[in-house]
Amino acid sequence: MSDTIQNEKFVELNYKVIDEKTGDVLVTVDYPLGYVHGVNDVLSEQVTKYLDGKKVGDIIEVPVDTKLLYGERDESLVFTDRIENVPEDYREIGLTITMENEKGEPRTFIVTRFDDETLTVDGNNPLCGRDVLFKLEILSIRDATDEELDLGGAVDADPDLEEILSKA
After folding, report:
1. Measured distance CA(36)–CA(8) in Å, rounded
2. Which is the most buried residue in 43, 118, 120, 146, by most CB within 10 A?
3. Is pLDDT above 80 for 162?
4. What are the residue ranges spanned by the domains of the chain?
5. 15 burial class (0-12, 13-18, 19+ CB within 10 angstroms)?
6. Alpha-carbon Rg of the chain, whole angstroms?
7. Topology (CATH) of 74-122
8. Distance (Å, whole) CA 85 – CA 104
9. What pLDDT, in 10s, does the model give residues 72-128?
């Protein structure tokens, strides 16, 4: 058994997403993320290519082009309304609100600002338009089981990274 990351190895890691300009931690996973390298695309290809050949205990920082992940920032997805038009339950920074467009397609918006007069929501992914680093710490590497190979990750685990990243 090899102790380096390569295809069909089950890998567990922790990671943080860091804003390159400010150094602020934007996202932290609260539990180890397990996936089968080369089988599961739970992490972007931009990130996984840097993991090839790494060992347990390695910590790497990977610059990520958020334009490739989320596209360009779209200012038409930012809306400001008068505070009296917004129910009190929605007046909280970071609150996510799901709305539907005219086609019935859902989109998540995040309350990004409010004051005595207005409230602003943003439908862009919070990482959109930022220069970010993924800081990854490799916790374990082992041969994946047949079931893990079929699933692409840990049995009984189904992390939703879109949900995690949308809370950034």
Report:
1. 6
2. 43
3. no
4. 9-69+127-166, 74-122
5. buried
6. 19
7. Thrombin, subunit H (2.40.10)
8. 22
9. 899 999 999 999 999 999 999 999 999 888 888 898 999 999 999 999 999 998 888
Distance, CA of 8 to CA of 35 (rounded, Å): 9
pTM greater than 0.70 (yes/no):
no
Read off the pLDDT of residues 125-158 as tens digits, 9 standing for 90 and up: 888 888 899 999 999 999 999 998 888 777 665 4
Token digits for 119?
Answer: 């409230």
**Given the structure tokens 């295809």, which residue do they identify?**
7
pLDDT of residue 163: 47
User: What does each C-alpha distance from 98 to 14, 72, 138, 162, 166 come to in angstroms?
Assistant: 29, 21, 35, 14, 12
pLDDT digits (tens, 9 = 90+) for 17-42: 999 999 999 888 878 888 899 887 77
80, 111 in Cβ contact below 8 A?
Answer: no
Q: Does residue 160 carry a pLDDT above 80?
A: no
Length of the chain: 168
d(CA 106, CA 74): 17
Q: The domain 9-69+127-166: what is its CATH number?
A: 3.10.50.40
What are the structure tokens assigned to 46, written together?
Answer: 């931009």
